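Appendix C: a fully annotated inverse folding record. The material below is reproduced so that readers can follow the format used throughout the book. The structure is listed first as tokens, followed by the designed sequence.
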């Protein structure tokens, strides 16, 4: 069951035999070819990551999106399982409507972070995401910058 007050797109449209969330993280949208960028997100931010993936594809950059519903379960996985999910894309980006804390274990200290860098604010989520730069456009900008394309 997924509950949110936001009007979000349904990203998983098939029934899988196994519960992907039990591993704490899983690829929700693969790259068309070899991924140059891996975008990680949790909760409602996954839809922003997928939109960022589309913006990158339009510019010829292959990206994949990984949903991270539970850090604790993901970190409890064996090293090889975590490495497989994290992948080998040279650019790693986390998208989070909060602070960076905890993300470095997945994206590395040199990974890009699209999220808040200070205390929050109140208001409609679309306005707040724009205010804090938590947008698909910022995801694409971060990826292109890291790839030396901007």
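Designed amino acids, in order:
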């Amino acid at each position: 069951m997924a509950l949110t007050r936001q009007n979000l797109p349904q990203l998983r449209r098939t029934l899988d035999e196994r519960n992907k969330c039990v591993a704490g993280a899983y690829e929700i949208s693969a790259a068309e070819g070899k991924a140059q960028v891996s975008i990680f997100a949790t909760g409602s931010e996954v839809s922003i990551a997928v939109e960022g993936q589309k913006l990158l594809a339009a510019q010829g950059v292959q990206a994949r999106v990984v949903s991270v519903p539970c850090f604790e379960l993901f970190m409890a996985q064996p090293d090889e399982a975590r490495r497989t999910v994290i992948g080998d894309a040279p650019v790693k980006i986390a998208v989070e409507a909060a602070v960076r804390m905890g993300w470095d274990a997945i994206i590395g200290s040199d990974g890009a972070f699209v999220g808040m860098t200070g205390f929050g604010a109140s208001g409609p989520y679309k306005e707040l995401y724009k205010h804090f730069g938590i947008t698909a456009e910022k995801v694409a900008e971060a990826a292109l910058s890291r790839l030396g394309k901007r």
